[in-house]
Design a protein that fits this description.
The protein has 3 domains: 145 residues, Rossmann fold (3-Layer(aba) Sandwich); 224 residues, Rossmann fold (3-Layer(aba) Sandwich), CATH 3.40.50; 94 residues, ANL, C-terminal domain (GMP Synthetase, Chain A, domain 3, 2-Layer Sandwich), CATH 3.30.300.30. 31% of the residues lie in helices and 25% in strands. The chain is built from 16 helices and 26 strands. It has a 9-stranded mixed beta sheet, sandwiched between helices. A 5-stranded parallel beta sheet has the order 4-3-5-6-7.
């Protein structure tokens, strides 16, 4: 019997079979050179123009020393320059390290030190924050590149990104990038004292793009508004990059301003929009919602947090032609793990759906054994979406991948049809008087009150109950609601131990730029 020897591809074979992030853009540019690819403000580029700009940017960075494997910090709001820099780094085989632009210098300094970043690309208005972060990290970048925003002059010592790439050649740079090379480190916003760096390769990202495109009903004729931060994996990897791979048109906004989103949907005849529930709520409450022409909007996506059932019903009522998808996952899954499609939104309200195309999902006990359908356990996944591991952290990598599954840290229930319901984050499960209370269940109940605009439920210390259920409530404009009203409303619908023992009326809920409610801030403010 003849045994086929192990394959050892030649460099030419490797290049011929390659499928990196940079290749996705180049192929779309070859297939649809004249199609509008990217819009940002007054900038409107075809795919061919965007591809040439990325080549110029990659050559400009390479001429200044950026090489394959270099970690490059990115600190910027959404912009044309952010998209160009992201693809240019991928084209060189460098590793982009996007960070939350709201972080302070000390927080960014940790990422610099932990990732070993050697250079920084920052929005000009954030250059001072970046400089202070490098000082706090007690090191200096080999290169500082400023993306012009028009809000500030390019600071001294920084390279003007646009001016530099305008002068660079448009030919594609030669770089021996492979599909399994790290292409990005995404730092989790997590609950631990220090964030973890999830390492992404093109192989796991492209597997996720396939799942997002197929399970999410995406197509080349989409026109999508990208308003949520591109430093976050949801907007970047569920929507922007899949759109570019497909040849769909991407309209990038600097931020998630409701008026700007509604205006842009009308002006660009957008067909597709992703927002976390908090932003969908903000759109519904905005006075422009009923005056703008939103008739072209056909596909809507939500994620990052559970969509309240009452808000889901309102979206169906006010945008009856909108097909909604729920994307559930986490950074380490690139990030989609499960999807609830339009046909199941009303049949399975509150569900996270079923495993995406390239994912297996289970609910397990503390020993990793699958629990019976209908019982609560930890949600675990496996499949090619999964990150390579945590950067420079083998212990937490081993813990996350124990038993051959990625452990999400979320609690969930699988029904008889294989649909997942996320009960809570482990950290958000409230243990009061010996009983477990899922904050999401209480939130869903409070949302049923007609005067409630938003609510967040969390546990706060209590000498008797150990933890007590607390609700922070935002009231709809023109409505009046007292804390006792909320308590009475819940008491009529929930068991006594689940009913909030403390209710605070607040003007707004604290959120991060990706739209997640910051419950740790609510605990700190109202835990006394």
């Amino acid at each position: 019997m003849t045994v086929q020897p192990a394959w050892h591809p030649t460099p030419d074979q490797s290049v011929a079979r390659r499928n990196t992030l940079a290749d996705l853009l180049r192929r779309t540019a070859a297939r649809e050179p004249d199609k509008l690819g990217l819009v940002f403000g007054a900038v409107r580029q075809t795919f061919a123009e965007l591809d040439a700009t990325v080549n110029r940017a990659a050559n400009a960075l390479a001429a200044r020393g950026i090489r394959r494997g270099d970690r490059v910090l990115m600190v910027a709001h959404n912009s044309h320059g952010f998209v160009v820099a992201y693809f240019a780094l991928a084209r060189l085989g460098a590793v982009s390290v996007p960070v939350n632009f709201m972080l302070g210098p000390d927080e960014i300094a940790y990422v610099i030190g932990h990732s070993g970043a050697v250079a920084v690309i920052a929005e000009d208005a954030l250059a001072d924050t970046a400089d202070r972060a490098w000082q706090a990290a007690d090191t200096a970048p080999a290169l500082r590149v400023a993306i012009g925003s028009g809000a500030a002059a390019v600071p001294e010592g920084w390279l003007d990104f646009e001016a530099a790439y305008r002068e660079a050649p448009a030919e594609e740079p030669d770089s021996a990038v492979t599909d399994d090379d790290p292409v990005q480190i995404m730092y989790t916003s997590g609950t631990e004292s220090r964030p973890k760096g999830a390492v992404m390769s093109t192989r796991n990202l492209t597997a996720q793009y396939t799942s997002a495109i197929v399970t999410g009903g995406m197509s080349a004729d989409d026109i999508e508004v990208h308003a949520l931060p591109l430093y976050h994996c949801a907007q970047l990897h569920c929507f922007l990059t899949p759109d570019i791979q497909l040849g769909a048109t991407s309209v990038v906004l600097p931020g998630a301003d409701p008026a700007a989103i509604l205006r842009t949907v009308e002006d660009e005849h957008a067909t597709k929009l992703f927002c976390p529930p908090t932003v969908w709520i903000a759109l519904l409450r905005h006075p422009d919602f009923d005056t703008r022409d939103l008739s072209t909007l056909r596909k809507g996506y939500y994620g990052a947090a559970a969509m309240p059932v009452e808000i889901l019903a309102e979206l169906h009522r006010r945008l009856p032609d909108l097909r909604l998808y729920n994307f559930y996952g986490q950074t380490e899954m690139s990030p989609v793990a499960t999807v609830l499609g339009p046909e199941d939104q009303e049949r399975k309200p509150g569900s996270a759906g079923r495993a995406a195309l390239n994912v297996e999902t289970r609910v397990v006990d503390e020993d990793g054994r699958e629990v019976p359908r209908g019982e609560v356990g930890e949600i675990v996944h496996r499949g090619p979406h999964t990150m390579l591991g945590y950067w420079n952290d083998p212990e937490r990598t081993a813990e996350a991948f124990r038993g051959g599954w990625f452990h999400s840290g979320d609690l969930g229930v699988m029904d008889d049809e294989g649909y997942l319901r996320v009960v809570d984050r482990k950290k958000d499960m409230i243990k009061t008087g010996g009983e477990n209370v899922a904050s999401r269940e209480v939130e869903e109940t409070v949302y049923q009150h007609p005067a409630v605009a938003e609510v967040a439920v969390f546990g706060v210390p209590d000498p008797y109950w150990i933890e007590m259920v607390c609700a922070a409530v935002v009231v709809k404009p023109g409505e009046h609601l007292a804390p006792d009203d909320v308590v009475a409303f819940c008491r009529a619908r929930l068991a006594g131990f689940k009913t909030p023992k403390k209710v605070v009326i607040v003007a707004a809920l604290p959120k991060n730029p990706s739209g997640k409610v910051l419950k740790r801030e609510l605990r700190a403010l109202h835990g006394g």
